[in-house]
Specification:
The chain is mostly beta strands. It has one helix at residues 37-40; strands spanning 8-16, 21-30. The chain has 1 helix and 2 strands, in the order ββα. InterPro entries: C2_domain_sf.
Amino acid sequence: MRDPVSGKLQVQLWYDQDKSHLIVTVVSAHDLRFRDTATYGPPEAFVCLRLYPFR
């Protein structure tokens, strides 16, 4: 089971209608939880973002 997500992300979204592309820019990240370096090695700087359709 995964640990709960913590911290804050500020993102900017822009949709290019001509190309049908959604552009997502991570503007800032604060108070993100570090993963266990003993198990996973040194931390990596990346963001995994999942977008779900509106229901």
